[in-house]
Amino acid sequence: MPTFRYSAFNQKGADVSGTLDAASESEARIHLKQKGLYAKEIAPAQEGGGKGLMKSRVSVPDLSLATRRLATLLGSAVPVYEAVATLWEQEAPGELKRVLGRVRDRLAEGQGLAQSLAAEPAVFSDSYVGMVAAGEASGALEVVLERLAGFQEDQAEVRSRVTTALAYPILMVFVGTGVMLFLLAFVVPKIVTVFQESKATLPFITVALIKISTMVRKGWWALLLAAAGFVALWKNLSRHEELLKKRDRLLLKLPLLGTLWQRLILSRFAKVLGLLLASGVPIIKAMEITGEAVVNREYKGFLAEAREALIQGGSLSAALKSSPLFPPLLVHMTAVGEKSGELDRMLIKAGEAFEKEFNASVTRSMALLEPLLVLAMGLCVGVVVLAVLLPIFQLNQLVK
Fold first, then answer.
1. What residues make up the domain containing 30?
2. Which residues of 31-64 are buried (b: 16+ CB within 10 A; e: fewer)?
3. What are 20-48's pLDDT values in tens digits?
4. Most buried in the list 10, 88, 140, 378, measured by CB within 10 Å?
5. Are residues 374 and 281 part of one domain?
């Protein structure tokens, strides 16, 4: 039976939100009326939180802060329902407040915290829910939430570092593209008119510049159509799983970006798996959740195979050693962790090491990329200037 999300008023005029199962939207309205609720909005649950259908509008820093606050409240012996209700009351109006309201309503209905969070897959990932479930089962929920908050803060820091590093190069690309389009569309045509009136033989570079300028001025609509067609084609190809696998495989083989991407994936894999194991999640289930958390399909496929090997009695280090996707450092630390019984701690250490390598590589790459972009912009403008000056020099020689 379909599940619907609703937002309604109760008999006292207070806002109420939650989910209910009904055959149709009209039947859901009838159920709400029977409960004394007056519906403001009803929508299928998958539209608001279906996995893969809608991205979360809750930022990672906001979620990590809420997680840490929840851990603090639970550590102070506050019951789960009261802790979530307190978070809901203190949260500013927005998507996170609505999500916490729905989680609070499910807790009031008798569901557990992990089950309540699992109904919001657009906000709470499988790894998040799995760790919370393990924390509930082990009685160490506040400790697990503290670990989750720390992990989310680390992820937010990595994302912020990458965004900051890419801001200047992206700005340079946009500015450089804008300058070139302005020169080709407005400046070059006025200068080229003089050369065409002289009927002199123009250098190849000048002829090429004139043709490009004409295409930009008269064929801009064709360029826009081509760009739209490329975007539509890309979206269509993105629906084919086999093509996506080839794309992910290609990304790992790129000269510089491939190494950066691999270190980021390895860091996430090791830290997520380590945190799941440290929270008491069985390794088979932890491998399944980690496979969903890793975004690259090449790694996803191998982790599914490694999970099958573990089910058959193999070791994690032996499974990782059989693939070139995992470097010897990670394999060695995994083997040491298995022998010493501290696999979770060794995986977290490995994840932190790969994260440091990623941060250092990003810093070095951006330090090299910025002067290269400036040089590329200078070369583009220099080509335009050269294409304009060469005919002028020829005209001067003819006059002499």
1. 3-49
2. ebeeeebebeebeebbebbeeeeeebebebebbb
3. 767 777 777 787 788 777 776 777 654 43
4. 88
5. yes
